[in-house]
Specification:
Layout: H1 12-23, E1 28-33, H2 40-47, E2 52-57, H3 64-79, H4 91-103, E3 111-116, H5 118-121, H6 128-139, E4 146-152, H7 155-163, E5 175-178, H8 184-193, H9 200-210, H10 214-217, H11 226-235, H12 245-248, H13 256-268, E6 273-274, H14 275-282, H15 288-299, E7 303-306, E8 317-320, H16 323-332, H17 342-346, H18 350-366, H19 368-374, E9 382-389, E10 398-406, E11 410-417, H20 427-444, E12 449-456, H21 464-469, E13 472-475, H22 476-479
Parallel strand pairs: 1-4, 1-5, 2-3, 3-4, 11-12, 12-13
Antiparallel strand pairs: 6-8, 7-8, 9-10, 10-11
Helix pairs in contact: 3-4, 4-6, 9-11, 9-16, 9-18, 13-14, 13-16
Length: 483
């Protein structure tokens, strides 16, 4: 069965927003941004395919003259060479052509102008952004039948030049939309649309490697297990993710060495680093460079910046959020595991167990809305964070990687367990749970009730230790529910 790539999976909130723009009685300016390969271009072209009047994409590392030639080629195609016949020599002229063309279209329906990979068009001294500003403020804003959609993967450029613009586009954007990776619910729907039939355990295993990135998930083929797919996609030299990392960051960031230094440092410490430790391991100089780089990585969805329980903003913990980047550093980068059967061998190793624990915890963090709903606390204000006590003379050290601090005077201490069978709390693990709860209570002096919460793949065995120590449990099926 062939894959129906025309079907738009998930993206319910985004599709509703895009539909509202078509029904608007004014000119609309939509900025769509998000991580590379997350499906921005596909969503825009597919949802607006009946309304697109002009569709143009910038080319990577191409000069202004070539970009303008490409623009003019699309212009000629759309106008059937019935209008301007001389190629523009600058962007102000190109946008004047575009304005005249849009003005000539029927006013009875909305027309979409889609400009993709905008950061690549803004080459050195090109005057592109100034021309775009003039086009919108002088012409487009007066066209009630226009929806201008711009897009790009270089989030730092999008943030600086558009979303936080202090120039001619300041406060001019009418809509913005960050496209996030698929949730597990959307991932399951997408794989089913490709006739890929896997258990939810296997889907989570794929997710821990690829995240919810549609372009990566598209490589998964029907009739293959998760293990086979990971082998093919990540460990064969012809596989998409074998060397995707080498293209991923350079195509998004300038001064990419700084970004890679941060990602490399965080890959070594999946539980996260504070700013001081991050600077030490990355070997970057403290100051504006680190702040700017971490902000850009967070905006692009590659890292989380979390604030530990009872700590201040300066105590923030930086964690690697991108599943593929973590997996690449852990198993692909050194080339030790290349070739057929690599993943099956890795899955038997202690390195796999350590990786899968942190990766599953990250999956749970990404689906915290579903977890809170399952716990019946989605209507209660709460914050997800972590906690660490270094230990002192009166109390040993302790660490909790994920907790939910609730306004209804309860704190859930979460423990994520990625297992192929039902998890069993034995005597030693029961002692660990008792000790960490006691240490947390004593160190934080919290007056809130403390609940132990298990986050598991399959329901845990309800033995005497479970009944004594566990107040709530969330299984993987919950993670697949729709938001």
């Amino acid at each position: 069965m062939s894959v129906n790539m025309r079907e738009l999976i998930g993206r319910s909130a985004e599709k509703k927003k895009m539909q509202r723009l078509l029904q608007s009685d004014r000119a609309e300016f939509l900025v769509v941004f998000g991580r590379r390969r997350v499906g921005k271009t596909f969503l825009i072209r597919e949802y607006y395919k009946s309304n697109i009047a002009f569709d143009f994409s910038g080319a990577y590392e191409v000069d202004k003259e070539t970009q303008l030639e490409n623009f003019f080629s699309e212009y000629l195609s759309r106008t059937k060479a019935q209008k301007e016949t001389v190629a523009p020599s600058k962007w102000t002229e190109a946008f004047r052509y575009l304005a005249d063309y849009i003005k000539s279209l029927k006013k009875s329906q909305k027309h979409v102008v889609f400009l993709d990979e905008l950061p690549w068009l803004d080459t050195h001294k090109s005057g592109f952004i100034q021309a775009l500003e003039y086009f919108w403020n002088q012409h487009a804003v007066k066209m009630d039948h226009l929806v201008l959609v711009v897009c790009g993967s270089a989030n730092a450029w999008i943030q600086k030049k558009l979303l936080r613009s202090k120039g001619g586009l300041y406060n001019r954007l009418t809509q913005r939309m960050k496209l996030e990776p698929f949730t597990l619910h959307e991932t399951e729907l997408y794989l089913k649309s490709k006739s890929v039939t896997l258990t939810r355990y296997q889907i989570i295993e794929l997710y821990m490697v690829m995240g919810g990135i549609p372009h990566y998930l598209n490589e998964v083929q029907p009739g293959k297990s998760a293990v086979q797919s990971i082998d093919d996609i990540c460990f064969r030299k012809s596989g998409l993710l074998y060397d995707e990392f080498n293209q991923l960051y350079p195509s998004i960031f300038s001064q990419v060495e700084n970004h890679l230094a941060i990602i490399n440092a965080l890959s070594k410490k999946p539980q996260g680093l504070n700013r001081k430790a991050l600077i030490k391991i990355s070997k970057l100089k403290d100051g504006g460079i680190v702040t700017r780089t971490t902000t850009e990585l967070e905006d692009a969805g590659f890292i989380h910046i979390l604030y530990p329980f009872q700590k201040l903003k300066r105590d923030a913990i930086y964690k690697l959020a991108d599943f593929y980047s973590h997996f690449y550093y852990k198993f692909i980068k050194n080339g030790k595991h290349a070739g057929s059967g690599a993943w099956n061998k890795i899955a038997m190793s202690p390195a796999y167990r350590a990786w899968s624990g942190y990766a599953f915890e990250n999956v749970c963090y990404m689906h915290m809305d579903q977890i809170k709903k399952a716990l019946g606390i989605d209507g209660v204000f709460s914050k997800s964070s972590s906690w660490k006590h270094l230990g002192d003379q009166s109390l040993p050290g302790g660490q909790i990687d994920l907790l939910i601090d609730r306004d209804d005077q309860v704190i859930n201490l979460c423990e994520a367990k990625f297992t192929k069978e039902s998890f069993i709390i034995n005597k030693a693990y029961a002692k660990k749970l008792r000790d960490r709860k006691l240490i947390f209570s004593e160190a934080t002096k919290t007056k809130k009730a403390i609940f132990n919460t298990l986050l598991t793949t399959y329901p845990a065995i309800k033995n005497e230790y479970y009944l004594e120590l566990i107040q709530s449990e969330v299984n993987m099926d919950v993670l697949f529910t729709k938001q």
